[in-house]
Every structure is written in C-alpha cells, then in structure tokens.
C-alpha cells in the first residue's frame, strides 16, 4: 500500500464530546456490546486523567518516528494522536519530552501509543496525558515513511482517523465514528440502570436477588452447605 498522509478527517461535534465526557471507559465499552477495548497493557503515565476526542492515527516502522513528526502538522486542537508500528514491536521510545512539548503547543489532548515512551519524568511534570505500552529510553530514527490517518491496528483494535478515543484509568476504548450516537444513547441507558442498582444496594438488597442469580446457581449444580462436612447429595 502506498504510504500517505490524509490531511482531512471527520471530527465529532463539541456537544458530542461533552456528552461522552460524562462517562468512563468501562461504561462506554459495555454500552457498545463489550467491543472496542484496547489490550490491558495500555496504561496511563499519569493516573486520574481522562481524554475524549477524535483519533489521528500514525503508523511507523519500528524504531522510526518520522511519521509522528509529520502527523503533528495535520493535527488540530483537541485531537488524540494514536501511534502504532508496522510490526507491533517497540524497539525505542517513539515519543519523549520534545515531541510532547510540540503536541502541547498544537493543542493536542493526548497520545495513545502501542509502542514505547521515554522522558517519562518530564512528561509527568508537563501533565500531558499519555497511554503507552512500555517505557524505553532507547532512541529512534527519522528516516522511514509510513501513514497518517490510515486504519491502524492499535493494541488489539482497529482505529481510523476520526474515530472517537476515550482513555482513563481503566484503559482505552475506541468508538467508531458511525456509531457515536447509538453508543452514546446506550451509555445513557446503562447509567440509568446502574443508578437503580445503586439504590437497591444502598437499601440492602443482595445482587443475588435483584439480578435473579439463585436460579443460575442451581442450573450450574451449585448447592449451599451449612458446614464443611455436610454430605453433598
């Protein structure tokens, strides 16, 4: 496939982003039928942060971040840079303090990188949100071409330019741009349901009862014993 930089992508409205910020990664993942969740090795450098915004994807050869520099030029304020490599390997720190400083200057919200990050202490001091696969101080080159805003395989999910990225302490979830409205409606419905469950818990009702789980235990052959030496019949 020819290498390219796609300059123009879909970006959700600010109202849509505002609505998504009400929720967390776990809720959105559940709301879209348990799909879109990146693998659990994607962890935040700084806990307690949340980012929600459109993805600008970057596909680089391992150990070369030329395309990251190219992507900065096409990013707009509020974008989230999603970086991966052609092989899935991390052979060097693809971003560090200097790139993060440039991203902040452009108003980029954060980075999700299925590779390695370095200059971690400095990035934490800057307060810039990064979700990364690894921390690795080894340097990279700026020699090899790749893709910006091509469909990218990142931590077990396919991300396209303009898809919505949400990241927090629970991980990273992708919502396809075609599904933004439906997933948001499902998230709202789920939160209403959870509010009811919280009231039941506060009232002392057991989840075994309000989820009707006793019959399921019976179906699975699980029995109650009064003491350990009771005979199971």
From TrEMBL:
Protein name from the UniProt record:
Putative 4-hydroxy-4-methyl-2-oxoglutarate aldolase
Q: Which family does it belong to?
A: Belongs to the class II aldolase/RraA-like family.
Q: Which leading EC class covers this enzyme?
A: lyase
Q: Where does Mg(2+) bind?
A: 119
Reported function: Catalyzes the aldol cleavage of 4-hydroxy-4-methyl-2-oxoglutarate (HMG) into 2 molecules of pyruvate. Also contains a secondary oxaloacetate (OAA) decarboxylase activity due to the common pyruvate enolate transition state formed following C-C bond cleavage in the retro-aldol and decarboxylation reactions.
Name the residues that bind substrate.
96-99, 118
Fill in the subunit field for this protein.
Homotrimer. Homohexamer.
UniProt KW keywords: Lyase, Magnesium, Metal-binding
Coiled-coil regions, chain positions: none
**Protein's GO biological process:** carboxylic acid catabolic process; monocarboxylic acid metabolic process; phenol-containing compound catabolic process
Q: Which Pfam families match?
A: RraA-like
Record keyword Lyase present: yes
Q: Which E.C. number(s) belong to this protein?
A: 4.1.1.112, 4.1.3.17
Q: What are this entry's molecular-function GO terms?
A: 4-hydroxy-4-methyl-2-oxoglutarate aldolase activity; metal ion binding; oxaloacetate decarboxylase activity
State its cofactor. a divalent metal cation; Mg(2+)
What InterPro entries does its record include?
A: RraA/RraA-like, RraA/RraA-like_sf
This enzyme catalyses:
oxaloacetate + H(+) = pyruvate + CO2; 4-hydroxy-4-methyl-2-oxoglutarate = 2 pyruvate
- PANTHER family (alphabetical): 4-HYDROXY-4-METHYL-2-OXOGLUTARATE ALDOLASE 3-RELATED, BLR3842 PROTEIN
- Fetch the NCBIfam families from UniProt: PRK09262.1 (NF006731)
Q: Where is the signal peptide?
A: none
